[in-house]
Design a protein that fits this description.
137 residues; binds zinc ion
Length: 137
């Protein structure tokens, strides 16, 4: 019964605020929902599914993320940390060049946006906390 009431309340909410809900993607298969990875304040990121940056691949695991800017080209370095077996990851680090595009307002968190592909997630952009640009791949 509790579940039913929760459903009724959610439906009522949807009727009252259709515009707020329209902004929230509801179906993962529509390609609107992107998995978003978070870079912690200490600059670490956990990858839970194979993630591609162009032709670079990050396998599951934890990474330290470094960022440097040279004009409009901003480069990220992902360094594998905490691997039980170093052979798990063929390269110690990968470097990804991105193009920085102006963003109206900086975010308070660092996020890596992805799009689902058949067997992996493809990174589309990276936003760093406090930086008023988005890094497009
Ligand atoms: Zn940057």
């Amino acid at each position: 019964m509790k579940t039913l009431w929760a459903t009724v309340i959610i439906c009522a909410f949807a009727l009252l605020f259709p515009s707020t809900l329209a902004a929230v993607p509801h179906d993962e298969n529509e390609g609107e929902v992107h998995r978003i990875l978070r870079i912690s304040k200490s600059g670490e990121m956990k990858v839970s599914a194979e993630t591609h940056f162009g032709h670079h691949v990050l396998t599951r695991g934890s990474y330290r993320v470094k960022h440097r800017a040279e004009g409009a080209i901003h480069t990220f370095t992902f360094i594998r940390i905490g691997a039980k077996d170093p052979r798990e990851f063929p390269a110690e680090e990968i470097e990804v060049r991105t193009t920085a595009l102006a963003m109206p307002k900086p975010l308070g968190v660092s996020l890596v946006y992805t799009e689902p592909e058949d067997s992996f997630d493809l990174v589309t952009k990276i936003v760093l906390a406090g930086e008023n640009v988005e890094h497009v791949l």
